[in-house]
Amino acid sequence: MSQLTEAFGIAIRMIFSGDPVVYSIALRTLLIASVATLFASMLFVPLGCLIYFGRFRGRRLVVAFIQTMYSVPTVFVGMLVFLLVSRSGPMGSMGLLFTPWAIILGEIALIAPIITGLTISALQSTGQGLADTAAALGASRGRIILKVLSEARYAVLTSLLMGFGRAVSEVGIAIMVGGNISGYTRTLTTAIALGVGKGETAASIALGLILLSLAMLVSIAVNLMQNRAG
User: Fold this and answer.
1) Residue 161: phi, psi to the nearest 5?
2) Over residues 193-204, mean pLDDT
3) Which alpha helices (DSSP H) does 97-187 contain, by range?
4) Dist. CA 101–CA 136, nearest whole Å
5) Residue 211: is it exposed, middle or buried by C-beta count within 10 angstroms (0-12/13-18/19+)?
C-alpha cells in the first residue's frame, strides 16, 4: 500500500512539474485524436445528412448497421487498417504503417459510425415539421438541409465530442498500426500499457490521470451540449 501511495505522489509531481515526456505523449494523443475527429466530421456529418434526407430502399437497414458498429472492437479496426497500409496492402506504397497517419486513419474508421449515426439521430430530433415548413416556404433542398442541420447543431457537436472521446481512449489501433514508437507514435493508452508491463507505475499513473481528466472533460462537454440541445 505504501508503494502505491508513493507512486501516486510521484505521478502527481510529474503532472504538476510539467514532465516533458508525459506532456509530449498527452499532446501527441490530443493532436492525433483531434485530426481524426476533424477529418471524420468533414466526411461523415454530410453522410449522415444524406442518409437522413435520402429516400432509398433499405435505409432502415443501413441505419441499423451503422448503429451496430458503434461498439466495433478497436483491434478489429486496427487489423483492417494494418492489412490496408502494410507493405503488401493496397496502400502499402504510401509508407503509412507505424506512423501517426496510420493511427489517424484507423481512428477515422473507428469513429465514423458514431458520428454518422448520431448525426442522423440529431437530425431526427428536430422533427419532420421543420423540413416540411421550410419546403412549403419554397426553400431549396440545400437550404432545407442547412436549416435542419443548424437547428440540430448542438446535438451534432455532441456526436463529434463522442467520436473524439472514443478516439482519444482507444488502444488497439494505436498499438497495431502505430507501433508504440517513443517520441513518434506513442499515445497515452499505449504508453500506459507499456509502462505497466515495464513496472513504471508512477509514470503509468500520471498518464492514466491525464487520460481520465480528458475523458471527464469530454463527458462534461457532452452534457453541456445535450442541455443546450434540449
Assistant:
1) -65, -40
2) 90
3) 100-124, 128-136, 141-151, 153-168, 172-178
4) 46
5) buried
Q: What angle do CA 157, 161, 162 make, to 5 degrees?
A: 115
C-alpha cell at 120: 442522423
User: pLDDT of 128-172, one tens digit each?
Assistant: 666 666 666 666 667 777 888 888 889 899 999 999 999 999 999
Q: How many residues appear in the chain?
A: 230
Residue bearing cell 445528412? 49
Q: Domain locations in the chain?
A: 2-229
Phi, psi of 72 (to 5 degrees): -60, 135
pLDDT at 225 over 90: no
Percent of the chain with pLDDT over 70: 92
- Whether the CB-CB separation of 187 and 35 falls below 8 Å is answered with no
DSSP H helices in 169-200 = 172-178, 188-198
What class does CATH assign to 2-229? mainly alpha
Q: Please compute the mean of the pLDDT values over residues 18-39 and round it to a whole number.
A: 95
Q: What is the pLDDT of residue 229?
A: 66
Residues 6 or more apart whose CB falls under 8 angstroms from that of 138 comprise none
